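As a warm-up, study this chain.
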Amino acid sequence: MVFETVRRARHRILANEALRHAAYSVSAALASLILLLLAGTQILGWAWLLLLPAIALAAGTYATWRTAPSPYRVAQRVDHNLKLADTLSTALFFAPADQDARSSDTRYAQWSQAERIAAGVDPRHAIPIRMPRALYGTALLALVAGSLFALRYGLDRRLDLR
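Now compare it with the structure written out below.
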């Protein structure tokens, strides 16, 4: 149960990171749309609307994968957030150790306690999914892009960007 709890908490951490990087990708798409609306097609082509967010998404995926926490770090974070006094992380730390006759009873007791606690842990409370702060910038860029689009269409009554 400890491993399952840590695995589910890790997925929630990665989901938070994926949301953050998705906000950056959408911001890149909106920024390129704003440049396209301001400068026209002579400077920026429609391909940039796909290329910039794709680059941002690839960089975000790489950064998320590279900084993904180890199971032990996830267990520490769950322990800290739920005030479990290092129960899960200690059990996880000593789980793969060689079986030593002197410490096997202690290790077993620690693991049993961690299993009981992990059975009652809800990863949604330990690692909540949060709205990334980057979403505020994305919303602002969406407002600017929408305003520019409405202004350009309102003045010209056509969508030609030349």
